């Protein structure tokens, strides 16, 4: 049974992926600061660890409890839509700490446990193109693009493929009253759309390297 570790597993894509892959017969370990939604997953294949991935001590302890990993899905993210000149400094710090540092920490720790397999970073179209009111979020996701590309060149000879998945707007709790979506939320991507893409990457094996996949709902254009 292959082991999948999923960060940000308490909501959105991470939560959907945790449930899907547990039901598909993988051993799934979810990691998140909050656990209320993860605790509702009833599959015997699913366990969870409470940890803040941006906290090096907490995430190190979390990975010390994991013996081996075949697949890592870096799904944890912080998001705020705001004009940069007026953006709260604490929100800026949270986005950088979670989206970039947390992903780097998790990936570094998982490589100690992974002989071969996949690392899948859930990025965004904002990591490919600049979007107004997303300057810091976009900066963190652009950084993931460079991180993924460089890491791939190190890891492919080891039998580990790294993929940057860059979806457009997804109908998740990231869009809320504080961060309103400027359009029809009913036409956004669903979390399961992203999970199906992840599953396709995994099922394709290591022979094919998916460097970066960009896709978005047809009510957006990037």
Characterise the protein shown here:
There is one protein chain. By secondary structure, the chain is α/β, with parallel strands linked by helices. It is 35% helix and 17% strand. The protein has a 7-stranded parallel sheet, sandwiched between helices. α3 runs parallel beside α4. The relative contact order is 0.14.
Short description:
With 222 residues, the chain is an alpha/beta fold.
Annotation keywords:
single chain; 222 residues; alpha/beta; seven-stranded parallel beta sheet; 5 helices; 35% helix; 17% strand; globular
Structural class: alpha/beta
How do the strands line up in the largest sheet? 3-2-1-4-5-6-7
Strand percentage:
15-25%
Task: Please tell me the overall pLDDT.
Answer: 93
- Give the CA-CA distance, first to last residue: 39 Å
Number of helices, where a helix is a run of at least 4 consecutive DSSP H or I residues: 5
Helix content class: 25-40%
Unreliable segments of 5+ consecutive residues: none
Radius of gyration (Å): 16 Å
Elements, N to C (H/E): EHEEHEHEHEHE
Shape: globular
Main beta-sheet annotation: 7 strands, parallel
Number of strands: 7
């Amino acid at each position: 049974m292959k082991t999948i570790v999923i960060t940000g597993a308490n909501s959105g894509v991470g939560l959907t992926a945790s449930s899907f892959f547990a039901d598909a017969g993988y051993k799934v370990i979810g990691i998140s600061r909050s656990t209320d939604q993860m605790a509702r997953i009833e599959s015997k294949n699913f366990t969870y660890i409470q940890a803040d991935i941006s906290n090096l001590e907490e995430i190190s302890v979390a990975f010390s409890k994991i013996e081996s990993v075949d697949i890592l899905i870096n799904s944890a993210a912080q998001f705020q839509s705001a004009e940069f000149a007026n953006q709260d400094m604490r929100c800026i710090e949270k986005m950088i700490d979670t989206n970039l540092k947390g992903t780097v920490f998790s990936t570094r720790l998982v490589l100690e446990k992974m002989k071969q397999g996949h690392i899948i970073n859930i990025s965004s179209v904002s990591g490919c193109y600049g979007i107004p009111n997303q300057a810091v979020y976009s900066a963190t996701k652009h950084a993931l693009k460079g991180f993924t590309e460089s890491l791939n060149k190190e890891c492919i000879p080891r039998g580990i493929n790294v993929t940057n998945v860059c979806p457009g707007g997804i109908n998740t709790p990231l869009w809320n009253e504080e961060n309103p979506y400027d359009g029809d939320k009913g036409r956004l991507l669903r979390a399961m759309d992203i999970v199906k893409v992840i599953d396709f990457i995994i099922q394709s094996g290591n022979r094919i390297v998916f460097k970066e996949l960009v896709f978005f709902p047809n009510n957006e254009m990037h």
